[in-house]
Design a protein that fits this description.
It is a single chain. With 130 residues, this protein is mainly alpha-helical. The chain has 2 helices and no strands. It comes from Hyaloscypha variabilis (strain UAMH 11265 / GT02V1 / F).
Amino acid sequence: MSQQKKSNTLLYVGVAAAGGVGYYLYTAGGNPKVAEKNFESDLSKASAKVKSEVPGRTNEAKKDAEKWATVAGAKVDSAVDKARVEAAKVEQYGKDAKNDALKKIDAADRKIEAEASKAKSGISSWFGGK
């Protein structure tokens, strides 16, 4: 069985090649030189068509890549802007927290100084000084 499958593949390739040769010989009226020229002409046309399509596809791909890069760049810019806004909020929160802490420290210092002043005057009165 596997021998037959291998030979079938080779058979199909052979039939396709013979069909191609037969087509060119038939269209050339049986003249092998004319058939060869027709084959070369068709091959040249096919090659030119492929070459002409490849640069067009390259341009399309380039345009698609540029469009994608523009969209991706806009998304990155948006993300950076959002990150800057969030960083500014965090920075402001830090400044507010620092200011609140400094106010509480100042209030605590004033209270401690007031209490120390009362204690000092109380202790001074024990010893008869002013």
